[in-house]
Each structure stands twice: as structure tokens, then as C-alpha cells.
């Protein structure tokens, strides 16, 4: 039987952001990716907390009877992953953390989120996305794949403002999950784009140091969305990790 692997997307996208991973892993693994609350097929959901985002992922795992899946989360999906581990309701065989952090929002980040909420309300998702993507993806990635920006704008603009604003509030209210890091006893892979300006390599290296059975790879020529910016590197690194841990 194929091992289940579940991917959790980042903000402000939905499960479609994993299209290259779906293509690569579907033949080898029981591939799953879900829309977090407020995104994609769940974009009608509003006014939820990060805890409820975690609950909906746990419900999915139970409903689909995924036995000890691998859980893989990028950025917001990583916040959910770490909190699910801390909640300790389910068993996992391995964890993949991509371009994410365990620390909660600082006061400065909280104010920035409020400004983002205002930007989305006043100017709309498209305007917000233009600014966000400037920071989020590296210029190399755009040169290598000029369609990437358009693909992300298409996924981002198909979201609903209330869903995105609810996710921002949920992230603003999330807790610090740093205490769970030394308690993680399952194999963990960390991946971070070498040019990630949102969750930089130095911050992810600090996380890696605290997780006992972890390994970290820096993704060349990539910003915050490393699985989309350098899918070949990310997919082959994940595959090697999964094979090494016997999955
Ligand atoms: C993401 O990619 O999910 C976001 O950048 C996370 C955040 O805004 O903290």
C-alpha cells in the first residue's frame, strides 16, 4: 500500500499550489493536498482560529483514514503542521517543514498583518498580490519560469477576500510552537529557499537545531515558495528523505 502524504499550502493560495508535487509524487505515494479553512473549496469559511484550521486537517486525516501520514506544510501550512504536532492527537511518520517558522507574530508583524487586511479591503486581492509576490518569489525564479507569477496570481485572485482576511487574523492570533520542537521524535526535513525574505534561512536553521532527528536543505535560487520556484530540487530532496526513512 502506498504511504499517505498530505501537503498543506501557504497563504494566500490553495491546494493547487502543489501541482508540481502532485505530478511527481502521485505515482509513488498516496498523495493528498487540502484547502485550509478560508481557501479554495473552503473559502466560504470565515471567522475561524488557527486551532480550527488544525481541527479541519485532523478531521480530514481521520475521515480519509490516513494511517501515520507524512505531513508537509509550507509557511502558513507549516504553522498548522507544528501546532498539530503540539496538539498531539494523531501519529505521523515524518514531517516536512518548508519556508516556515515556529515563533508567533511580533507586535511589528501584527501591525503588518493589520495593514495587509486594510490593503485587501481597500484595494482588493490583485493589488495586494502584486506587492506580496515582489517579496515572496525570487527574481531568478521569474526569469527561469515567466509563467510562475501568472499562475500564482490566478490562484490568489480566485480566493475570496473574507477567507484571506480570516486566515490573516488566524495567523495573527496563533501561538508560539517553539516548545514542541525538541519533543519531535519523528524524522523531519526542513527546506528553505536561499533567498526567502519572509521566513529566512537563518530562522529555519534555528528551528532545525532544536528538532532532534532533523535535516535541512537550502533550496538554490528560490524565495519563499521553494516548491514552486525550484520544484526539481524540492521534489528530489523530499523523495530522498522519504526513501531514507523507509517510506
Ligand atoms: C505564507 O506564505 O503562508 C505566508 O507568508 C505566511 C505569513 O504571512 O506569515
Task: Name every ligand kind in the structure.
Answer: D-malate
* Spatial strand arrangement across the major sheet: 2-1-3-4-5-6
The portion of residues forming beta strands comes to 5-15%
Give the number of DSSP strands: 6
Radius of gyration equals: 17 Å
State the helicity in percent bands: 40-55%
What is shown here, in short?
With 247 residues, the protein is of the alpha/beta class.
Structure in words:
The protein has 11 helices and 6 strands. It has helices at 19-25, 50-63, 76-87, 107-123, 125-136, 139-144, 147-157, 161-172, 201-210, 226-229, 231-244; strands at 4-8, 30-34, 70-74, 94-98, 188-193, 214-219. Helix 1 (19-25) links the parallel strand 1 (4-8) and strand 2. The protein has a 6-stranded parallel beta sheet with strand order 2-1-3-4-5-6, with helices on both faces. Helix 4 (107-123) runs antiparallel to helix 8 and helix 5 packs across helix 7. 44% of the residues are buried. It has 247 residues and is of the alpha/beta class. The chain binds D-malate. Residues 10-11, 75-76, 171, 198, 224 line the site of D-malate.
Amino acid at each position: 500500500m502506498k504511504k499517505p502524504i498530505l501537503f498543506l499550502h501557504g497563504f494566500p493560495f490553495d491546494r493547487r499550489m502543489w501541482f508540481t508535487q502532485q505530478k511527481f509524487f502521485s505515482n509513488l505515494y498516496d498523495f493528498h493536498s487540502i484547502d485550509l479553512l478560508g481557501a479554495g473549496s473552503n473559502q466560504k469559511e470565515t471567522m475561524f482560529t488557527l486551532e480550527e484550521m488544525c481541527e479541519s486537517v485532523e478531521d480530514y486525516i481521520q475521515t480519509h483514514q490516513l494511517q501515520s501520514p507524512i505531513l508537509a506544510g509550507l509557511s502558513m501550512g507549516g504553522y498548522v503542521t507544528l501546532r498539530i504536532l503540539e496538539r498531539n492527537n494523531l501519529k505521523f511518520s515524518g514531517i516536512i517543514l518548508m519556508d516556515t517558522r515556529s515563533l508567533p507574530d511580533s507586535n511589528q508583524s501584527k501591525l503588518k498583518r493589520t495593514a495587509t487586511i486594510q490593503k485587501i479591503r481597500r484595494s482588493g486581492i490583485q493589488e495586494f498580490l502584486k506587492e506580496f509576490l515582489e517579496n515572496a518569489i525570487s527574481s531568478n525564479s521569474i526569469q527561469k519560469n515567466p509563467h510562475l507569477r501568472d499562475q500564482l496570481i490566478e490562484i490568489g485572485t480566485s480566493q475570496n477576500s473574507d477567507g484571506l482576511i480570516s486566515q490573516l487574523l488566524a495567523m495573527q492570533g496563533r501561538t508560539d510552537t517553539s516548545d514542541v520542537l525538541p519533543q519531535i521524535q519523528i524524522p523531519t526535513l526542513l527546506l528553505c529557499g536561499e533567498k526567502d525574505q519572509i521566513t529566512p534561512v537563518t530562522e529555519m536553521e534555528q528551528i532545525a537545531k532544536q528538532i532532534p532527528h532533523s535535516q535541512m536543505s537550502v533550496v538554490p535560487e528560490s524565495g519563499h515558495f521553494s516548491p514552486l520556484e525550484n520544484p526539481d530540487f524540492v521534489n528530489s530532496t523530499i523523495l530522498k528523505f522519504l526513501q531514507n526513512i523507509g517510506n
